[in-house]
Amino acid sequence: MTSRGPAILRSFSLRAGDTLIKLMDIASPPARRSHQFAAGVRWLTFFVKDVQKSYEQLQAKGVRFLTAPVAAPDAAGIVCALDPDGVLIELVQLHASDAG
User: Fold this and answer.
1) What is the DSSP code string of 43-79?
2) What is the mean pLDDT of the chain?
């Protein structure tokens, strides 16, 4: 499933230690809650050392993921799940050279 973000979007990233918080300003967010981009807490990214191991451990505890982990140009692995409130939870494993 491929989704496209809004045409007008400002994004700011705040880093506190190993935690990254992305804040997004969307010019015209949809009025109702959906799986599309919208105002409010919509997406949390957590950096993990081993995305495959995290995926397997969480899946064994009943977490339902949107897909299996995949590689990306800027990450060794990424996998996403929805929390009970519909917030997208993204687990990211950086490339060894980016992990510091």
Assistant:
1) EEEEE-S-HHHHHHHHHHTTPPBSSS-EEETTEEEEE
2) 79
pTM over 0.70: no
Smallest CA-to-CA distance from 54 within 100, 15, 95, 93 is with: 93
Tokens of 74: 């800027």
Parallel, antiparallel, or unpaired for β 70-72 and 88-93? unpaired
CB 47 within 8 A of CB 73: no
**Position 39, amino acid:** A
39 contacts 33 by C-beta, under 8 angstroms: no
Q: In whole angstroms, what is the distance from residue 19 CA to residue 46 CA?
A: 7
Torsion of CA 67, 70, 76, 78, to 10 degrees: -30
